[in-house]
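Handout, section B. The chain below has 138 residues.
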Amino acid sequence: MAKRPSHVNNKIAEMLKTTEAIYGCSVATSVESTPTPSGIYTVNPVLSNISKLYEGKELAEVIRLMIEIAGGMVADVPSDKDFHNLEIGPLLTNYLRGSDDYSTEDRIRMFRLIEKLAFESRDIVSNIHGAGSPETIE
């Protein structure tokens, strides 16, 4: 496998730092939960809100970095119909091939995943205002 450029490594490190911090806060809020008289556990509200605030502010940056690494293909991936077209499909498969370590199909799947994460599954409003506005929680 070819060595990645340092700017890509830096972006991946930043993405991992953010996602692991969110994960860590989420685990900590459960570990620090306390039982109620009914036996149901209540999560630690401070850790829970810190996780929520961090996610609301930083997850969009992770997605932005992911798009930056992937480049313009995120917005310009040909459709499955294009790949199945007898005339242009083989050309697309050939010219969109990347490293010999991965098939064109796997590469396109990765671009589609990034496209879905960036354009369809991102819910900025609930990331920021879910469980209350940041000002009321801070």
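Note. The domain at 6-137 is CATH 1.20.140.10 (Butyryl-CoA Dehydrogenase, subunit A; domain 3). Compare this with the example in section A.
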